[in-house]
Specification:
Blueprint: H1 2-10, H2 23-37, H3 55-61, E1 66-72, E2 77-85, E3 92-101, E4 107-115, H4 121-138, E5 159-161, E6 166-168, H5 172-175
Antiparallel strand pairs: 1-2, 2-3, 3-4, 5-6
Helix pairs in contact: 2-3
């Protein structure tokens, strides 16, 4: 029995960001993810929000975000589940997505797959972890999209535009 416990305590959780990055790297990576998933810094645009003069805005909100789950697949795709604030509300939102990792811990080919509804943090953690693991297992979350108590977006009103890196109203072309 004690041998099993020792063996289990020595194995790393493949969905724990600590398995892949130290604390400093995690902060850098999360700040880079925040630049994609959070509102734009004042006076920035989609084209300029990654410029150094706006980084302090994203660093300032870093404590409000957390990487709950993380996984690097054999094909070097990075999967994440991040919890983020919802305005000034006491609720939180989960974001599940993926990207490839470029230089200086900068994501490339970034994509948000789903956003959870505004929920209490405990529920966000439970539902987000479920969606995260299902996404890795199945490669998509299509069968869960109708579950509005798990997935707020995408829906009939918002889809993720990988070119703009933001949620947008679907157009006739994007529906086809």
């Amino acid at each position: 029995m004690s041998i099993c416990l020792i063996a289990l305590s020595c194995t790393k959780d493949k969905y724990n960001v600590n398995t892949y990055f130290d604390k400093t790297q995690q902060d850098t990576l999360l700040t880079n993810i925040i630049t994609y998933i959070y509102r734009k810094a004042p006076q920035s645009s989609n084209e300029t929000k990654f410029q150094p003069q706006f980084r302090k805005f994203y660093l300032a909100v870093l404590p409000k975000f957390s990487i709950q789950n993380y996984y690097i697949a054999p094909d070097s795709t990075h999967y994440f589940f991040v919890i983020r604030p919802v305005g000034n509300l006491p609720y939180r939102r989960g974001v599940v997505g993926r990207y490839k990792l470029g230089k200086n811990l900068r994501p490339t080919d970034f994509e948000e797959i789903v956003n959870t509804p505004h929920l209490e943090e405990k529920l966000v953690k439970e539902r987000g972890r479920f969606l995260f693991t299902e996404f890795i297992r199945n490669g998509n979350l299509d069968k869960y999209l109708p579950m509005k108590h798990y997935v707020e977006w995408p829906d009939a009103n918002l889809i993720y535009d990988k070119k703009l890196n933001e949620w947008v109203a679907p157009t006739h072309e994007s529906i086809q």
